[in-house]
Amino acid sequence: MHLFNAFTVLMDLTQLLACSALMKKAYLLLILFLFISCIRAYADVSIDGNQDTAQVNLLNRQGFKIRLTDHEQTIAKGQQALEIAQKLNYTNGIAEAYRVMGVGEAYARNSAMAIADYLNALSYFKRANNLLGQAQVYNNIGNLYLEIDYDESLDYLQKGLNMAQKLRNDKLIAKAYLNIGNVYQRKKNFTMSLDYYNKSGELCTKLKDSVNSITILQNVGVIYYKLKQYDKAEQILLEANKQAKGKDLNTSIGKIDLTLSSLYLENKKYDQAAKFIEEGVVYAQATKDEDLEADFTYNSYQLAFHKKNYEQALSYIHTIYVRDSTLQANMLTSDLGLMKKQHDQQEKQRENELIIERQKNDRVKFWWAVSGSGLLMIVVALLFGNVKRKAKTNARLTELNSEVSRQKDNLDRINHHLEEIIDERTRDLQIKNKKLSEYSSYLSHQIRGPIATLKGLMNLEKEGLVDQQECITMMNKCVSDIDEKIIDMTDILHDPKRTSF
Known about the structure:
This protein is mainly alpha-helical. It has 16 helices and no strands.
């Protein structure tokens, strides 16, 4: 309806514009300015959108990078990225935000929340047809199932590995090898585990991935610890601890300290065990890893028991009991939190769908406006061109009419002149006809007389009735008379002033 009204107004304006060349130019400039403004507005939106998607990607990268240092910040960065990505309907950004949040929840040992985030991430990556993202999530889910079901974990990790190999992504392949090695370590298949760790280590060295190289070193140390090759395990773990401190990998340091403290307890090196327990508790508290802190509490109990400090050992047992009770309550709270989160996610999903629908409508309206502006410009151009063509045609017709008028005047003058010429020629012919008639009459009367005389003289001379000399003289006179009359007739014929003989 608005387009129709605009078109009607435009038609009226066009009729007015036909009267003024200056107004035509001004109106065309106005339409062009409005069209360019629409395009620039859309371009500005696109630029802002690009800036916002870059912010989403940055938050996701920052969150994933600090996963081994501060998993709470990892979750917070993922949530910030998710809010912005949902407003933009940035599918890959939403998927990666859920994945980063799942990684943070996994390091926080909130398995239920982590799996929910991973499944959401997988859903969005599939929607975006992002194979790399799907492979990463399969890897994350497989790592999460490492604590629950080894076969399920291997299934997910193998899916991720297959996709990574299809994409030829060495970084993801290295991570998949590392996680598969972790599964075989839990299954006590140390030969397979070391084989996968070696494959992962080769790729990490090639990629200069120091973080995963430290994790592999740590895990190899754990294998040798479980194989009771304590000297080799100690050497590897101490090196891993040193490298992890160089990279500020708090979670890795805490786990290495836990293994070292267990190793020293089994070797009855209680002072060294106490040192790493004390250090490890600090890192466990820094990373807010309650499970790791509980493992250190158990090692502290072992240390106190071996040192025959039974009162302190009893207090550690009490702490463990209280923690288990609290853990059960927290599990219930976590389940309730998960249900609430699922509800919130459903609400956000519905809100996101509404936003998407509004964005679609806005885009449709924008393109309708652009199309309408384009059509109006085309109509104006056509009408303007038509007016110019009509003006040119009218000017040409005026010129042709003037030329026809001039030609008509020339024809009239020529016709009038021809009539005069015809009249003059007619009069001339009439005069000449009259002269010819008179000439004929004159010839029959004036010329025949002398000729008859000549004939008579000739007849008289034949009969001898006249003297020859006299006859010749009279004949000469007749001839002269005939000659004079012929000359006189010639002059009369050729002299327009003489009209009669």
